Amino acid sequence: MTKKKDHHEEIDETQPSAEEMPIAGNPDSAEREALINQLKEAEAKIIEYKDGWARSQAEFQNYRKRIERDNDLLKANMKGDIVKKILPALDDLERALQNRPADDAWANGVELIARKLQNILDSEGVTRIEAQGAEFDPNFHEAISHEPSDAVASGHVIEVVQNGYLIGERVIRPALVRVAQ
User: Tens of pLDDT along 110-159?
Assistant: First the structure.
């Protein structure tokens, strides 16, 4: 409802009068304190939520890195397990080639199969432990005997009985060796 004043201005009676309205720049002190407290509480919640969010992000990143590391380790372990199962067949092929007759087509086929297996292992990052003549290292070698030797220095490998293999830095199978006393 509107009324007309003498000056032909319309006044809205549903709105509070100027006397009833607080002055925008000068709210009473209790209301001002309440607003300041609300603002401080809201700012504190913002900081709390922001810190919680940052912590959650960091925890998620750490979780993701841990899962990736665990998956890589699982893959390496699975690869190592499979390679361990293949190595005896490669050992048998190598032994067969050591005693093969000269110029035999069958022996050439066995040699081809052994090379293919070795190439597969190479492509998967599997490397042979070079032990012949090396100093005995229990991290890479497993001694099956200690023997006196004039040709090889004490504590060094005389003969490799079975080759050892690594995947990266991890030993899949130590080399079985005979060591000089």
Answer: 889 999 999 999 998 899 999 988 899 999 999 999 988 888 888 899 99
Per-residue 3-state assignment (H helix, E strand, C coil) for 113-157:
HHHHHHHHHHHCCEEEECCCCCECCCCCEEEEEEECCCCCCCCEE
The maximal CA–CA distance of the chain, rounded, in angstroms, is: 130
Q: Exposure string (b/e) for 102-134, b if CB count within 10 Å is 16 or more?
A: eeeeeeeebbeebeebeeebeeeebeebebeee
Report d(CA 147, CA 178) in Å as an integer: 7
Listed in sequence order, the residues at least 6 apart from 23 whose beta carbon sits closer than 8 Å to its beta carbon are none
The 10s digit of each residue's pLDDT in 84-100 is: 999 999 998 888 888 88
